[in-house]
Amino acid sequence: MKKIMSLMLALIMVVSLCTAAVTEFSAAQTTVTAATKDALYAHAYEGEEADSEAWVKWYEKDGKMYFFMPTCTDDTQLEIYNAFDSAVTINDVKIDAKSSAVVDFTDDVDYYAKVNGKDYLLVIMVSSAEAAMFINNPENFDGKDLWGYLTETKENSASATSALLDEEGNLDSTPIKKIKGRGNTSWDADKKGFNITFDGAVKVGNMQKCKKFSIISNFQDASLSRNRILYDLADEVGVPYASDSRFTEVYVNGEYIGNYQVCEKVDVGKNTLMPDIDDEEYLSYCAGESPAFSFVCEIDANPDEDDFTVKASNGNNLTMKAPELERTDENYAKTRLFIKNKYDTMYSKLVTNAANINDYIDIESLAQVYLINELGKNWDAGAGSFFFVYKQDENGKWKFFASPVWDYDNSLGNAQGVEWDLRNMGIDDYEEPTGWFAKHKGGYRGPNFLKESVARNKTLTDMIPVVWFEQFVPAINNRLNGEGLNDTELYSSDVYLSKLTASAKMNFIRWDIVQEPQWIADHTSLNKCHVTYQYNEFGQITGVDYTKDSTATKYDKYVFEAEYQYMLDWTNSRVAWMSKEYISNYTPSEPEYIRGDADMDGEVSIMDATAIQLHIASLEKLSDLGAVAADVDDDGDISILDATQIQLFIADIVEKL
Questions:
Q1: Residue 599 lies in a domain
Q2: Are 316 and 393 found together in one domain?
Q3: What is the per-residue pLDDT across 463-476, written as a single tens digit (0 to 9) for each?
């Protein structure tokens, strides 16, 4: 549907018999907050309400000017504002100084613009990303603009106005309370990441509302997708507090700064990633009113000087994410001692193979997070950026949960690693999808939590193959390797690619693909691995057939689509290899079903009796597990007697099946 401006254009053209595809506006009608520099600005918002925040400044690269527009942009017309002091023309369409006009365009086609007597090639590109975030503050920060000020040091922060747009062009103008730099290695890159707190909860794309976000640059991941896929996989298999995220175009004072992954920040409280965790529970504990309190901590190799940290007895450094206390806080020592004792006890129970380990840490979440790290061959696996939440489970038992997952850009075949470190671990195939890594990775401060856990705890090692085959493999086979699936946490690979392709093209004009750094692996060749699964009558995996290509598949160097395909092929090869390794230690769980639930819809109803009757009449066949559920009289046969028994149960004539 054309925007209102376009309809006005059509009317004016008819009335005036004007042949130029342009509508002019007076300067009084156009206010562009982002217009802090002499430049052309394109409007990304098409709604009827007035808006001055979603404007895109043109960008120069190699002698060509670009407008990098969000997905919701009208694909035929663009309103362009001229911030210069003299008129400009675009393909002979005149735009007066400090005024705007609507200009026809075709995506990714060269046009001509004349500014101050100079000719420019101009290209308008439209993104494929799921959202756009505009961050505007025109103030002077000690001689620097907002981007220059924020990127000078991580300590600098600012407030800003904003415009959030989704794929449909819906607008949210909630102000930004604070934006501040984030990251360790990533902060040294030109394309930097940030933490953002909004004044209120907002939606980025179709995510649930949240107030605090981390915007991750993925600068060293040429596929732009490794963090996103592993976060979404963790969410799909049920890891607590797995951060939701969306591919988002980010603009600062109108300047396009690239494709970012906007994630729910690891934080607690209302409208955050962990809304059920209260960072003031420690006050009740310190006052003697509660026997315990919830907290969130990270095994952290590089804590900041002013972080609230706890040194565990095993040497692990725990940086507290909640609560965060100053040393001068009267409850500092008592709170710190409680956290230390709880962690020390949990770790001791884990590495001594305590039979009741589930009373201290949720073993399923630990198995899930171990597998995320092992699948990805995540460089920091268990040694850094490794989080725990201490809280009550559904039965009121206080324990640790391994969550949330975080920081996987150096995973899924991306990183080359540090050679001396690899040699010390006895690993010579880190870049390959074969071979173990997380179970060998050393710690940075104290032991590596995952390495020690899988080496010493039988409950965990017994659970890992079960979680792999009953959670991970179905998610990867049915979701990631499906087609056109984006209705749950994990999308299919073609959907991720469709969200990224046009956006990646824009991003890698703005920022070159990282080439030849010491930590990035070569992505041009891969001997792919393959697996075929064997199943029992209940659809459970009972065997695998594994092969590895003797001839390597070749991939173009520094081409986004090739980088993405390499990442996907590496991931599926890794899945194949891990399945081969785990199958000998896997015994399928007892099939879960409700007695009498013949149609397997999760409840016993008259439909189950009907399903049995259709099965007996050979009109519709019950599934293997449905047949087990249907045999309620336990005579080994599906008959009308089973259907009758179910009918009696539904009518409350018999108490149970």
A1: yes
A2: yes
A3: 999 999 999 999 99
Q: Is 314 in the same domain as 300?
A: yes
**Pick from 260, 258, 254: which is nearest to 42 by CA?**
254
Same domain, 113 and 135: no
| Crossing angle (nearest 10°) for helices 606-616 and 640-650 | 170
Rounded to whole angstroms, how far apart are CA atoms 208 and 3?
A: 28
State whether 555 and 570 are in the same domain.
Answer: yes
Tokens of 511: 């920022």
Residue 470 included in any domain: no
Is 280 contained in some domain? no
**Strand ranges for 49-192 from DSSP E:** 55-57, 59-61, 64-69, 77-82, 88-90, 93-95, 99-104, 110-115, 118-126, 131-136, 157-166, 171-172, 176-182
Residues 6+ apart with CB under 8 A from 170: none
In 353-429, which residue ranges form alpha helices assigned H by DSSP? 363-376, 419-425
Return the ∠ at Cα 131 (arms to 40 and 488), rounded to 5°.
165
Give CA–CA dist 176/168, Å, rounded. 22
Alpha-carbon separation of residue 347 from 203, 350, 422, 542 (angstroms): 38, 5, 26, 34
Last residue of a domain, one of 556, 585, 614: 585
**DSSP-derived secondary structure letter, 588:** P
- DSSP string of 540-557? -EEEEEEEE-SSPEE--T
Prior bond to 291 cis, omega within 30? no
Mean pLDDT of 95-115: 94
Q: Considering only residues 456 and 21, tell me which one the structure prediction assigns the higher pLDDT.
A: 456
The span from the CA of 4 to the CA of 338, in Å, is: 61
CA distance 651 to 649: 5
- Average pLDDT over the chain reads 91
CA 296 to chain centre: 20
Helix (H, G, I), strand (E, B) or coil at 318: strand
Q: 109 and 141 in one domain? A: no
Give whole-number Cα distances, 70 to 128, 168, 322, 518, in Å.
Answer: 7, 10, 36, 33
pLDDT attached to residue 222:
95
Q: Domains in the chain: how many in total?
A: 5
Give the max Cα distance, the chain: 92
488 shares a domain with 385: no
Query: Is 70 exceeded by the pLDDT of residue 67?
Result: yes
Domain that holds residue 534: 476-585
DSSP structural state of residue 29: G
What's 649's domain CATH number? 1.10.1330.10
What is the average pLDDT across 223-234?
98
pLDDT digits (tens, 9 = 90+) for 354-404: 999 999 999 999 999 999 999 999 999 999 999 999 999 999 999 999 999
Confidence of residue 487 (pLDDT cuts 50, 70, 90): confident
Shared domain check, 398 and 308: yes
Region 561-566: what's the mean pLDDT?
98
Mean local confidence (pLDDT), 478-482: 96
- Claim: this prediction has a pTM higher than 0.85: yes
Looking at the structure, tell me whether residues 258 and 299 fall in a common domain: no
Q: In one letter, which amino acid is 442?
A: G
The answer to whether residue 469 sits within a structural domain is no
